[in-house]
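Assess this one:
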Amino acid sequence: SYNRWVTTQPESGGSINSVQNGILLGSAIHQLFDAYDLSINPDDNYNIVFFTLDGDNLAGKYLNQQFRDDPLRPADQLLRWHFRQAVLANMRGAGEPGFEHDFPPGSDIVSEILDGPKPVERMEFELFSRLAA
């Protein structure tokens, strides 16, 4: 669980709401980050890596030192986890659907699955990954 890497706990809501669990990004960049089309490699001097077209010319640039020195920034382990997930997501075969399966507590997972794209395949994926583990 990522909780072990969050050292600054918020007053309420648990570590998911910690300032260390976020980076302020513009909406377009945020969407790329959430879709694992953009990531930050903490093991390569915080290199910004794109797995899709980079319309903002950010690929290959590095996070600035001020951000890297900030004790409230996301832990390297969180950035590393995201980077590895991005690599895996983008190494998947062409045409394979990507399903998010790390739902926050209290969310209606079944409703999200049934209302989302490819509900039959998604439900099968969720059931198999949870029951076959």
